[in-house]
């Protein structure tokens, strides 16, 4: 329910977020404040809620890199199922 969640956030990434989140982070780090060209997000601008066009689903999931699990403190996330 992104329309409800946006009340508590500045931006929401919809659906598959790998490419969208990467593009959003690049925009923020470069100081860009215009997110209108980033597909697959809902964001606030001037007090208005803007829903960007949806991003296409990733056709080839094999092109995504594996997470760098070695950089995470996985021992903190102990579970009886692990």
SSE topology sketch:
Layout: H1 2-5, E1 11-13, H2 18-29, E2 41-45, E3 48-51
Antiparallel strand pairs: 1-2, 2-3
Structural description of this entry:
The protein has a domain at 2-58. Helices cover 20% and strands 15% of the residues. The protein has a 3-stranded antiparallel beta sheet. The protein is globular, with a radius of gyration of 16 Å. With 82 residues, the protein is an alpha+beta fold. The mean pLDDT is 89. The chain has 2 helices and 3 strands, in the order H-E-H-E-E. The chain has helices spanning 2-5, 18-29, and strands at residues 11-13, 41-45, 48-51. A hairpin with a 2-residue loop joins strand 2 (41-45) and strand 3 (48-51).
Determine the N-to-C terminus distance.
31 Å
Average predicted local confidence, pLDDT: 89
Structural class assignment: alpha+beta
List low-confidence stretches.
none
**Radius of gyration over alpha carbons?**
16 Å
Strand segment tally: 3
Instruction: Report on the biggest sheet.
Output: 3 strands, antiparallel
Name the quaternary structure.
single chain
Envelope shape? globular
The topology string of helices and strands comes to HEHEE
- How much of the residues is beta strand, in percent? 5-15%
The residue fraction in helices comes out at: 10-25%
Strand order of the largest sheet: 1-2-3
Total helical elements:
2
